[in-house]
Write a structure and sequence with these properties.
The protein is mainly α. The protein is 77% helix and 0% strand.
Length: 329
């Protein structure tokens, strides 16, 4: 829930309680923040998505122009000292998502976020204009509401124009490539390592001891240990600056988590106390894991289906057979 519920205890103001001076001061600070957000989007996207970056640069300039108009009116009505009121001081004012959260979204979602920002700003100006008794203030706020509405339509139009020109397609292709390099590739490597490399020790232990709990402990330790090792290795060996593979923290996290999950998939069935029931379920899980890896290789890495099956399913089956042979020998 938003802060409005806690307003009586938080010391924050309600929007309906703001004076004309406070509304103008709030609008100035909101425009300043939106301008900085758009400028930051443009900076972060310039190298990878230049067309969208130019769109955000233009929007940042527009928001800055709104700020100047608001300051001129504020100075004429209330003097040079602008009240230090910001969106977090108003309980029922709209929020902005942190830039660090939005910038990790796909490019289409970032454009959609910009449209949502303009929609919220338009709603604010219309509500503020409706409450103002000053003709000049009301006129300016109404004009800004209309401009924000045009901005929202403009973002949609510019997105469509980018798509028609091919620029959006290029940016979407670059976004897909970055997603694959940062998340899919290290995650797939981890899943393959976790699924295949733990087959031999888990099933060797299973058939050597026929003790489900011991087998589970071996599988758990092998999976967690492999996940930690693979995650740190992925994060440490490439900082992503030259290779363009993205944040080492993200890649390490993807690799480490998927490595652990890959091993745990066929270790968890051994929580079942009956050995053969646990083993049959674990073998079924292995079958699903290997075919899932082959599908991911074909879907995202564009590996031919037959080659993916040959590499993963056949290789995994050989490792599985080795573990069963060693444990049952």
């Amino acid at each position: 829930m938003r802060g409005v519920f806690f307003w009586p205890f938080s010391g924050r103001r309600r929007f309906d309680s703001l004076s004309a001076e406070e509304i103008l001061a709030l609008a100035i600070s909101a425009e300043e923040e939106d301008s900085r957000i758009y400028a930051l989007y443009a900076k972060r996207l310039r190298d990878t998505y230049p067309a969208t970056a130019r769109m955000f640069e233009a929007m940042a300039a527009e928001e800055d122009a709104h700020r100047r108009r608001l300051i001129e009116l504020y100075r004429a009505r209330f003097g040079d000292l602008i009240l230090p009121i910001r969106r977090e001081h108003v309980a029922d004012f709209y929020d902005r998502r942190p830039v660090w959260l939005v910038e990790n979204l796909p490019i289409e979602r970032i454009r959609a976020e910009a449209m949502a920002m303009e929609r919220e700003a338009e709603r604010f100006y219309r509500q503020a204009a409706a409450r103002s008794m000053d003709a000049e203030v009301r006129t300016l706020l109404g004009d800004l509401a209309a401009v924000e509405a045009r901005h929202e339509r403009g973002v949609a139009a510019m997105t469509e124009k980018l798509r028609e020109s091919g620029a959006a397609s290029k940016e979407e292709l670059a976004a897909r490539r970055q997603f694959i390099l940062t998340w899919v590739q290290p995650g797939l490597a981890g899943l393959m390592d976790g699924s295949v490399s733990t087959l031999a020790p888990i099933f060797a232990t299973a058939f050597a001891t026929q003790d489900p709990w011991t087998t589970f402990l071996v599988g758990l330790s092998a999976s967690v240990g492999a996940g930690i090792s693979m995650g740190f290795t992925e994060a440490a060996h490439d900082d992503g600056k030259l290779s363009g593979r993205g944040s080492p923290v993200k890649r390490g996290l993807a690799c480490g988590v998927m490595t652990t999950l890959g091993g745990l998939g066929h270790a968890l069935p051994y929580l079942i106390p009956h050995f053969w029931t646990a083993t049959i379920i674990a073998l079924a899980v292995v079958f699903v894991e290997l075919w899932a890896i082959a599908w991911i290789q074909n879907r995202y890495m564009e590996t031919p289906w037959r080659r993916a099956v040959f590499q993963v399913v056949l290789g995994g089956s050989l490792v599985l057979a080795a573990g069963i042979f060693i444990g049952g020998g």
